[in-house]
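Many introductory courses stop at the sequence. We go one step further.
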Amino acid sequence: MPSYAETLRQEIESALDSAAQFNTDCPSRLREAVRYSLLAPGKRLRPLLVLAACELCGTPSNALEYRRKALPAACAVEMVHAYSLIHDDLPAMDNDDLRRGMPTCHRKFDEATAILAGDALMALAFEMIGNLAPPELAGCCCKELAVAAGACRLVGGQMDDMLREEQGGKTEPAIEMIEHIHHRKTGALIRAALKLGGMISGASEQQRAALDEFGTHFGLAFQITDDLLDVLGNEEMAGKRLRKDAERAKWSYPHCIGIEASKHAAEQAVSDAEKALAIFGQDTVPFQALRDWVQQLPNRLS
């Protein structure tokens, strides 16, 4: 019998595949590039968070109904994430050749096609949000996702990350700035995923605040672990090129405070995330899933 996460992942994969079919007006090369990047094997963490948060704040007896209602938002979050990866991998940014164990979009196709594929995914994300009902909910969710993906959050975090890299060894890394970048570049979309799930389920203010706090700590734990993975990880298992941060003098937790202190910071963020879930019923499957997902983050290093 499939696990809870696998059940949700299958629902997400089916919805993503359906959403990225397109009609004959979409050039075949663009369609192929979009589907190549969007449907590449992945954990689907962000859409999983949308569905789990929606189910957690909803009525247990109507779990499937809540998940179906939240699927457009789950797909939208994954599309924004996929677009950001395509653009981050470009030569003008991180210049990566490998993503999820496969050639990056611009390597598989070309740079222009990759840029357009990212553009198409961003537009498709908001088309998916528009499928939510009622329209008032769609509008609120659209704004939430737009803010998370915009100049002060995801895109701004990427810009600051690039600026710090340009400075190289000229400026001493500051943990406050590194954390500020992480909260935007990685954490913003994770928090948005949880917020969208709560909004769609009609969560209370207390529940929404708890989800947001959980997302803040979860996002930080995820990024610190990713920083550590770049230093300690196995490229074959990670599915991407590692040791990049040190090569580029890129600011990261290990660069700033060292490996052991970074591990401790990740463990603290995991603990804080668990505490944020305290208001929810611990006997529910979504609660157990959220707790397990955050607890498993340090295991990425082993």
